[in-house]
Amino acid sequence: MVAPMRYYSLKAIDFKGRVPFVSIFAVAMLVSVILIDPPRVLLLIAVLYALSGPVISASRKYRHSKKA
């Protein structure tokens, strides 16, 4: 997908090394919440991810203009 905005890439997550307990607990909680109401929760996750691009771009522009 080509977009002028930067989105967080999930490729940076390393599953080969040691994983903290908090991360495992967070994933288990996320799965349990998804199982409660899959359509709404997955829609919420998709909307939050879609909004993350403009938010990241705006914060980078703001930080860049503040330095100049």
What does this protein structure show overall?
There is one protein chain. With 68 residues, the protein is mainly alpha-helical. The protein has a domain at 37-68. The chain has helices at residues 21-36, 38-67. Helix 1 crosses helix 2. The two termini are 31 Å apart.
**Portion in beta strands:** under 5%
Q: From the alpha-carbon coordinates, what is the Rg to the nearest angstrom?
A: 16 Å
Sheet of most strands:
none
SSE string: HH
What structural class do helix, strand and pairing data support?
mainly alpha
Question: What's the short story on this structure?
Answer:
This protein is mainly alpha-helical.
What's the topology here?
Layout: H1 21-36, H2 38-67
Helix pairs in contact: 1-2
Q: What are the main properties of this structure?
A:
68 residues; mainly alpha; 2 helices
